[in-house]
Amino acid sequence: MSLYYEPIVYTIPPEEEGMLLKTILQKRMNVSRKLISKLKLTEQGIMLNGTRVYISVKVQSGDRVEIRMERERSDDILPEPIPFDILFEDEHLLVVNKAAGMIVHPTHGHYTGTLANGVVHYWQTKGELFRFRPVHRLDQETTGVLVVAKNPYVHQHISEQMTMGTVDKRYTALVHGCPDPQEGRVDGPIDRNPDDLHLRMVTPDGYPALTLYKLEEAWNEGSRIGIKLESGRTHQIRVHMTSIGCPLIGDKMYRNTPADAAQRERYDQLDAQMPRQALHASELSLVHPVTGEQLTFCAPLPDDMAKLQELLRNQNGGLT
């Protein structure tokens, strides 16, 4: 196995002749300063027409610029034969449909049984060597699309897309009640709840958070909501939907308690049908950092949410 991953290549067009290699790396290939510094320390990190050069040289039309990153391993993650659903994979990206109850990365008290343990084992059985680099997170009980970068260049690029808001993340939620209005935006800053630091809350002094929502289907006892995130705060969807009176069915951490006893009982009955918050990361779109292709990944509604949805439909019939 080669010491390096497959090179990322850029060919100089005529209009860029005479530019500094450093400028090409930063402005055309969008390599971060931090990664450039790391690449300069390796023998084949930055190559021009197959030769190691200083990044201060000027390039010519047709020159081939290559960056090669050294292979990395996740030595701090124990490989475990944990099955997971792959939506897409190439030499740069792994996209999975995360299952409910699965933690993404080992944390204090959860060193095994995570998605990372399963992915590292999967790569090991294929004879591949990558470091586990998730570019975003999903709550333990949230299902759906999750993207893992296979090298720091790809991780950097997708992280920048997320910062710029060009990654389109869509969610499906089954909630108590029906939002009014049926389509809108929740623009509510989020921060820790001082009474319980494990919880988040909407507060004027919090971090900016924006959630767009749209009613997709409504029933007498609940509704299905399509959600698009414009920011990525911890528990954002759960907090925002609770703040507008539509907590996620099954959510034990965030819930409005209805004053009406009969309504409370109906809430309890629905929550008993769902062992987790009814939230699913259904779709994610991004630009592939290497090929430039616009990609969209979709994950079908998981069985538990599909069964709950059918129950809601059958109780009193759909309203929309």
TrEMBL record:
Q: Which domain of life is it from?
A: Bacteria
Instruction: Give the catalytic activity.
Output: a uridine in RNA = a pseudouridine in RNA
List each coiled-coil range: none
Report the record's Gene Ontology biological process terms: enzyme-directed rRNA pseudouridine synthesis
Question: Isomerase: present as a keyword of the record?
Answer: yes
Record-linked Pfam families? PseudoU_synth_2
Does the record's keyword annotation contain Isomerase?
Answer: yes
Q: What is its EC number?
A: 5.4.99.-
GO MF term (any one)? pseudouridine synthase activity
The Pseudouridine synthase RsuA/RluA-like domain extends over 92-242
Q: What class of enzyme is it?
A: isomerase
Q: Which InterPro entries does its entry note?
A: PsdUridine_synth_cat_dom_sf, PsdUridine_synth_RluA-like_CS, PsdUridine_synth_RluC/D, PsdUridine_synth_RsuA/RluA, RluA_PseudoU_synthase
> Which key words are in the record?
Isomerase
Enumerate the active-site residues. Answer: 139
Please state which protein family the record places this protein in.
Belongs to the pseudouridine synthase RluA family.
Q: What does this protein do?
A: Responsible for synthesis of pseudouridine from uracil.
PANTHER family according to UniProt:
MITOCHONDRIAL RNA PSEUDOURIDINE SYNTHASE (PTHR21600), RIBOSOMAL LARGE SUBUNIT PSEUDOURIDINE SYNTHASE D (PTHR21600:SF44)
What's the name of the protein?
Answer: Pseudouridine synthase
State the organism named in the record: Paenibacillus terrae
